[in-house]
């Protein structure tokens, strides 16, 4: 018997949802019955995602730079205007800036932290204010899901601001979960391992680089965005009603691994 969740008539905001994991989450939520707001800074990709998802259910694109407080305020207002409620927030928007520690520019450090960490804070706070008001009026509590990474625990030396931001999201998830628990609002995070997004596609086409990834992945494959979306759907649903303050790592077994595994030749 298959495991399924339902988000019927729930309203969800997903940031960075124009492509990759964010788009996969948006698609899964729409298929599970949610009304989805796609938030992104890439208007072309955002509108394309909106049209794609409208063939499956209800979806609306809203431009939003999560690092800008006014953009976030407009995102919340636009969602309430479109659907009248917010039940779920997925803080997925994120960027990277590759550089060695000694050469890392302050501007790049600030930009990554502003989007990945501050953006998660701004969106969470704005949406949580609505959710708390709703609970105080007798409504159902909502769910906030942050996109973390295995790099909240392990680290990559040339991805300093990214790793720092994801480490910060771990603590932001815990502290906001404790703050919002009295209202029944749950806050959790997902920590993906190597997932087949556009960013990883070039690595996957290079056999040596692909084998390097697989050598640290006990399940011997790269994950799919839909597999992260499945975790998000669970965390957003009533099936996760007693889960809060947690980070669920979907990484094919990578974090427990203290060595590398043999990679078979070929596919």
Automatic annotation (TrEMBL):
<dbReference type="Pfam" id="PF13561">
    <property type="entry name" value="adh_short_C2"/>
</dbReference>
<protein>
    <submittedName>
        <fullName>Dehydrogenase</fullName>
    </submittedName>
</protein>
<comment type="similarity">
    <text>Belongs to the short-chain dehydrogenases/reductases (SDR) family.</text>
</comment>
<dbReference type="InterPro" id="IPR002347">
    <property type="entry name" value="SDR_fam"/>
</dbReference>
<dbReference type="InterPro" id="IPR057326">
    <property type="entry name" value="KR_dom"/>
</dbReference>
<dbReference type="GO" id="GO:0006633">
    <property type="term" value="P:fatty acid biosynthetic process"/>
</dbReference>
<feature type="domain" description="Ketoreductase">
    <location>
        <begin position="10"/>
        <end position="193"/>
    </location>
</feature>
<dbReference type="GO" id="GO:0048038">
    <property type="term" value="F:quinone binding"/>
</dbReference>
<dbReference type="InterPro" id="IPR036291">
    <property type="entry name" value="NAD(P)-bd_dom_sf"/>
</dbReference>
<dbReference type="GO" id="GO:0016616">
    <property type="term" value="F:oxidoreductase activity, acting on the CH-OH group of donors, NAD or NADP as acceptor"/>
</dbReference>
<keyword id="KW-0560">Oxidoreductase</keyword>
<dbReference type="InterPro" id="IPR020904">
    <property type="entry name" value="Sc_DH/Rdtase_CS"/>
</dbReference>
């Amino acid at each position: 018997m298959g495991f399924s969740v339902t988000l019927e008539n729930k309203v969800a905001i997903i940031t960075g949802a124009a492509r990759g994991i964010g788009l996969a989450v948006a698609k899964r939520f729409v298929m599970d019955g949610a009304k989805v707001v796609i938030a992104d800074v890439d208007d072309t990709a955002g509108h394309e995602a909106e049209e794609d998802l409208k063939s499956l259910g209800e979806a609306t694109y809203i431009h939003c730079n999560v690092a800008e407080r006014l953009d976030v305020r407009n995102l919340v207002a636009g969602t309430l205007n479109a659907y009248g409620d917010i039940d779920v927030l997925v803080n997925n928007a994120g960027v990277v800036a590759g550089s060695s520690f000694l050469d890392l520019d302050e501007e790049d450090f600030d930009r990554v932290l502003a989007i990945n960490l501050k953006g998660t804070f701004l969106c969470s706070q704005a949406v949580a204010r609505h959710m708390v008001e709703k609970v105080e009026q007798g409504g159902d509590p909502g769910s906030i899901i942050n996109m973390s990474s295995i790099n909240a625990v392990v680290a990559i030396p040339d991805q300093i601001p990214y790793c720092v931001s994801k480490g910060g999201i771990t603590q932001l998830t815990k502290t906001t979960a404790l703050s919002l628990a009295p209202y029944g609002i749950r806050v959790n995070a997902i920590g993906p391992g190597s997932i087949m997004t556009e960013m990883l596609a070039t690595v996957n086409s290079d056999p040596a680089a692909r084998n390097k990834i697989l050598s640290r992945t006990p399940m011997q494959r790269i994950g799919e965005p839909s597999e992260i979306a499945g975790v998000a759907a669970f965390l957003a649903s009533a099936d996760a009603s007693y889960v809060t303050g947690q980070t669920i790592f979907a990484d094919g077994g990578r974090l427990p691994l203290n060595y590398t595994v043999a990679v078979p030749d070929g596919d």
